[in-house]
Design goal:
Low-confidence stretches: 118-122, 198-208
Helix content: over 70%
Mean pLDDT: 76
Structural class: mainly alpha
Radius of gyration: 43 Å
Order of helices and strands: HHHHHHHH
Number of strands: 0
Oligomer: single chain
Largest sheet: none
Strand content: under 5%
Shape: elongated
Distance between the termini: 70 Å
Number of helices: 8
């Protein structure tokens, strides 16, 4: 068996001679020879650049969540305002990533609408494969964003549960304090009635106690206002708890909407596959019709030749 011969140098010499015949100077020849070793990177399309930028944004969001996870969950590390600012920044991140994914989907739909041929059929299979690949890229980005948002949902659920747990015992304590204050007011009213009766019995001593009665009335009004304010505070705490629960439900609803978007993408892929199957079925039907017509022509030709042969044999006999 003959050994393989290295012809790289011969190839370089041939390239050098061809470049000189095309009136290339030494710099251009050196650039051509260097291109055989150092290949130029392929130029990325605008869709690829936008997809990579979206992926970088999602990774930055994930790193931000990992960095501020303890600060967001632990009550003793940060204040409520700082936790609200972290939540606001994460919401802005998620909204920006969703907008980028929507822009990618819009570009795919525009490209798909322009690539369709006559009667809505796809003209180029390579372009159809590229569009399917882009749909897969968008689906992967949506799933990655959904995984990051689910992590943030878990952190928000922990915070909301802590807020609810803090609000319930506080409300119970305030209700107990309000009931105690009401009891004190009732006892004070009873004491006032007894003092009035005592003043009616001893009018001489009652003349020296008007200041004490006014002070007692002011104390009663203060306690009544305190009870009313406690009731208002309980109502505010209850409204705050309901708002927190509504915010959690709103975020969960947005998560379910994203899941439905992924399911819609899956249904779209299945519809594309079904369309391809229909196109293949139409091709098979057209081929079957052609075979049927050709077999019919062959049968007629065979009958004609057979009839002519029988007539020829009868005439020959």
């Amino acid at each position: 068996m003959a050994r393989a011969r290295d012809r790289i140098e011969d190839f370089k010499d041939a390239v050098h001679r061809t470049a000189l015949s095309l009136e290339y100077d030494e710099a251009k020849v050196a650039a051509v020879l260097a291109s055989f070793i150092m290949h130029k990177p392929r130029q990325r399309t605008s869709f690829t650049k936008a997809a990579l930028k979206t992926l970088e944004s999602i990774e930055a969001l994930e790193q931000f969540l990992i960095k501020h996870k303890k600060d967001y969950v632990d009550l003793h590390r940060t204040t409520e305002q700082e936790r609200d600012s972290i939540e606001h920044e994460v919401t802005i991140f998620i909204k920006a990533c969703k907008e980028q994914i929507d822009i990618l989907k819009t570009s795919i739909n525009d490209e798909e609408s322009t690539s369709k041929g006559w009667l809505g059929t796809k003209g180029n299979h390579s372009n159809a494969d590229t569009i399917a690949h882009k749909h897969g890229v968008v689906l992967i980005l949506s799933e990655r964003l959904h995984s990051v948002t689910s992590q943030f949902d878990q952190l928000r659920a922990i915070r909301f549960q802590e807020a609810i747990n803090r609000a319930i015992p506080r409300r119970k304590l305030k209700q107990v304090a309000a009931s105690n204050s009401v009891d004190n007011i009732n006892t004070n009213n009873i004491g006032l009635k007894e003092s009035d009766n005592f003043e009616l019995r001893e009018p001489d001593e009652g003349k020296t106690d008007p200041v004490r009665v006014q002070q007692q009335l002011l104390d009663d009004e203060t306690r009544a206002l305190q009870v009313e304010l406690n009731g208002l505070l309980d109502a505010v705490q209850e409204t705050e708890t309901k708002m927190v629960e509504m915010s959690a439900l709103n975020h969960l609803m947005s998560t379910h909407v994203l899941q439905q978007a992924q399911q819609i993408e899956l249904l779209y892929e299945q519809a594309v596959e079904a369309t391809k199957n229909v196109e293949l079925g139409n091709k098979e039907l057209s081929q079957a019709i052609q075979r049927n017509s050709s077999s019919r022509t062959f049968l007629l030709l065979f009958l004609f030749v057979l009839t002519f042969s029988i007539l020829f044999l009868d005439w020959y006999n």
